[in-house]
Amino acid sequence: MAKSAIGNSKTLPITSAQEVRHFTGPVDDHTVAEILGLMPTAEDLEVAVVYAQGEGDIAGTEGHELSGKPAQIYEILAQDDMYQSDER
Questions:
Q1: What 8-state DSSP symbol labels residue 81?
Q2: Mean pLDDT value of segment 37-47
Q3: How confident is the model at residue 57 (pLDDT cuts 50, 70, 90)?
Q4: Which DSSP category does 58 fall into?
Q5: pTM (2 d.p.)
Q6: CA angle, corner 72, sides to 7 and 75, nearest 5?
């Protein structure tokens, strides 16, 4: 019998645009497609979004470098208008 996605751990892959946008907010379709191509987990997305929002600096200084899929997702998010900073 197939397991329900409700209540499963953060290790199951994200498989829909709706799930991606649940974590990232209203990013564009191209961004969603690139992220889905990585077959990320909810945990991957959560970590990447925290860093993309500029909240990952504290963890980074404590030895928790962004790597793997979260790093790839971060790079994708950084190219999306929603996550680009106006600071120059």
A1: G
A2: 95
A3: low
A4: H
A5: 0.77
A6: 115
Average pLDDT value for residue range 51-74: 76
Distance CA 84, CA 82 (A): 6
Q: How far apart are CA 86 and CA 2, in angstroms?
A: 45
Read off the pLDDT of each residue in 8-14 and give the average, rounded to a whole number: 77
Residue 77 burial by Cβ neighbours in a 10 Å radius (0-12, 13-18, 19+): buried
For the record, the structure tokens of 44 come out as 């991957």
Contact 36, 17 (CB under 8 A): yes
The sign of the dihedral angle between the CA atoms of 8, 9, 14, 19 is: positive
Place of tokens 């979260």: 70
